[in-house]
Amino acid sequence: MRCTTSQEKKERFLSSPHFAVAGASQDQSRRASKILGWYRNKHMDVIPVHPKAKDLDGLRAVPSIANLPSPSTTALSIATMPPVTLTLLQQARTLSIPSIWIQPGAADQRVIDYIKSNDLSDRVIYGGPCILSEGDGIVHGQWFDEIYDGQF
Predict the structure, then answer these.
(1) Do the domain assignments include residue 1?
(2) What are phi and psi of 42, to 5 degrees?
(3) 120 lies in some domain
(4) The whole model's pTM is what?
(5) Residue 103's domain is classified under what CATH number?
(6) Which residues contact 57 (CB under 8 A, 6 or more apart)?
(7) Is position 118 within any domain?
(8) Which residue, 37, 50, 71, 120, could crosslink 115 as a Cys pair with Cβ 3.0–4.6 Å?
(9) Strands 124-125, 59-60: pairing kind
(10) What sequence ranges are listed for the domain CoA-binding (predicted)?
(11) In a domain, 149, yes or no
(12) pLDDT in tens, 74-126
């Protein structure tokens, strides 16, 4: 398996055709709810994952990542407590979710150990900044590259 840089993982994550956010709620002050709004503002195809809510921020929610319409082409943002994050990672591995961004505070040593012991390091972003801090720059860079495709 080839070593993937953090930047490559982030670019691959944001080039996904579909996105899901685990941890969003009706509370708009929560990080996951802000992340859900970030995707919506970018007109990205995003689905909130919530075990009880039927919809969040005007979007139909699914109770589990197992209920995503196309998990193998969906990038997953996780902003949950570490025990929930660990369960989501286990499910994501089984579902072949290709790219996962664990937001700050959602990972502990058990989560990190699981990532490393299950060969997930090439597709999981963790231990760094939130997508809200870096996402815009990556998306704009991808847009620029797509529009100008090596013309400079």
Answers:
(1) no
(2) -90, 5
(3) yes
(4) 0.87
(5) 3.40.50.720
(6) 24, 28, 33, 36, 37, 40, 48
(7) yes
(8) 120
(9) unpaired
(10) 19-133
(11) no
(12) 999 999 999 999 999 999 999 999 999 999 999 999 999 999 999 999 999 99
